[in-house]
Amino acid sequence: MWTVIFILIGIGLIMVLLEILVIPGGGLAGVIGFALMVIGVFLTYSREGSTSGHLVLAGTLVVNIGALVLALRSKTWDRAMLKTNIDSRVNTIDDDELKAGDVGTTISRCCPMGKALINDRFYEVTSYSEFINEDTEIEVIKIEKSKIFIKLKT
Predict the structure, then answer these.
(1) Is 42 exposed, middle or buried (0-12, 13-18, 19+ CB in 10 A)?
(2) Category of 9 on φ-ψ map: left (φ > 0), alpha (ψ -120 to 50) or beta
(3) Residue 41, CA distances (Å) to 4, 51, 53, 56, 69 in order
(4) What is the tally of structural domains in the chain?
(5) Best-predicted range by mean pLDDT among 68-77, 94-103, 131-140?
(6) Which member of 2, 3, 30, 130 has the greatest number of CB atoms within 10 A?
(7) The model scores a pTM over 0.85
(8) Rounded-to-10 torsion of CA 106, 148, 92, 119
């Protein structure tokens, strides 16, 4: 019986730690893990008596707090964080290279956004009103800041 109790509490602890450190949002793994630990402690009280129940409850609390402190102090967050800064933009448009009326070809399906090859450069483009399949000739309608609006070439 002790084996079942320790397995329930151990799996519960692992699921709670996974919920806190790895699995984003949800909360399902944490709830299941907490429930498994409660079942393990409850089984100890009902099968082994109140003295053993108190000891297992205290041990479970100490192990949970210790595991959480150890996991947070072991630089788990630092290993999971992105350390580089992204300072690029999607489209950097030079007025001499691209202007309204230029013609190009879609590289991907534009629904409404996609990629296009215009004047031998790749750009992220936005279709004004319709979906445009790839390998279709398009025309630049207008450019607002870094956003390029296109339509089917007529």
Answers:
(1) middle
(2) alpha
(3) 11, 12, 6, 6, 22
(4) 2
(5) 131-140
(6) 30
(7) no
(8) 40
